[in-house]
Amino acid sequence: MAATVFATVGGNEVLGRIFPKLNRTANSGIFSVSLEQFTVLQQVDGSVRLSIAGLNHKVLVTRVAESEFTAVSEVCTHSGCAIGNYDVANKRFQCPCHGSRFAADGSVLRGPAPRSLDSYPVQFDVAANMVHLEIAGISAAPDEQGAAAYLAPIAINNGTATVRYGLAAPAQVSITIWTVAGQKVLVPVEQTQEAGEHTAVIAVGQLPAGNYLCRIQTSDGFSAAEKFVVGW
Ligand code: FES
User: How far is the centre of ligand 1, averaged over its atoms, from the C-alpha of 138 (Å)?
Assistant: First the structure.
């Protein structure tokens, strides 16, 4: 189920949607932010402030280079004020309370902030034109707890990846495997499937050792991703 979020772009509130994958066992989630939706992120120095259900502060996502994004908490590490929007001219954030400055990746440029802003792993999915944020500590929001569509954590065993997922309704399903560099390496599922639980067992033993992303997309708009590791 897609969650509605608000993004502040240059002081204006923009309504958008992100597609949460709630990993309830690990209490974390990967959120896929579409650049088609948040068009400000289509350009270098574009920055949005996202409200994410279940997180008690906002997250600033900034495009710092053609293929590089950062995601940081808005909470200043000095006394907890919300930092300002990204200052494109000076390529920094500034806290309105006591003037701390931070680079786009959250590192401190000027105190009194004692440490970097909390940051989140980000992956740019070039083919899908999406940015995937990995956010720990998310708990399921009430409107998401009943969501039937899901992607479970990937189980790796003896060169196979077992992918369990659920569909809320019959849909065209695409499951794809990506390298962290954004290269699609496998398309194990590409077909219409019934609602309910499904399992795909994928041979991944032939892939070079490393980190991969398993992504599901359905024709009714569900999208989620899970990381897994091959060979280590
Ligand atoms: S709270 Fe940000 S500088 Fe003091």
Answer: 25
